[in-house]
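Case 228 in the screening queue. Each case pairs one protein sequence with one candidate compound; here the compound is manganese (II) ion. For every case the pipeline is the same: read the inputs, emit a complex structure as tokens, and attach any notable structural observations.

Predict complex for case 228.
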Amino acid sequence: MSYVFDPAPVTSLAIAGESARFPVRRIYCVGRNYAEHAREMGHDPDREPPFFFSKPSDAILGGGADFPYPPGTEDVHHEIELVAALKSGGVDIAEADALGHVFGYAVGLDMTRRDLQGTAKKMGRPWDVAKGFDASAPCGDLVPASAIGHPTKGRIWLDVAGETRQEGDLADLIWSVPEMIAYLSRLFRLEAGDLIMTGTPAGVAAVRRGDLLEGGVEGVGTLRTRVV
Ligand code: MN
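Case 228 output:
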């Protein structure tokens, strides 16, 4: 096989305790998956179920690298999230089988140009420019489920410049990880390498250049990135 130019490099994540890396295929993200966050965004979680959007795989920013403040916005928000990583996939996956497809978990940030998202919502436009910009998915190292199991409860938090901004508990996810995998697999063929960002708890707010973002999920790990 020859190409007219070199193909883009494979995006990958480090895996705790392993030298091999996890190759990323797609990034699916769920919106409004914690009731308190849905309310802070002006929605009623009892009437509007969660939904999905996606980011390009090369939006991953790994290894604790600095987060470059993106162009075209003056209101970039942090959204701390549990990330589930698939080692296999399929279509029409049953909830009962879903966790068998999960390789492991990480802590991620769904960085969002909130001003552009607001415009998109108002105009009925897609969210790509708000959610899918370069480096919009800082992500910590993956931890295999073989080591930590499948977390269903535990604190999820984000501190900005030493102050706690976001706080919640995985027990408050509206859709669980198996429910998200089953739902997604009825819309897309899931494959090994797919990541699912599982939604953010309440407390989203703007970041500024120089801010240190430090977050984590109890039982999974932590994530640090500085806004530059
Ligand atoms: Mn999000």
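Case 228 observations:
- The chain has one domain: 12-226.
- Helices lie at 35-40, 95-98, 114-123, 128-131, 145-148, 177-184.
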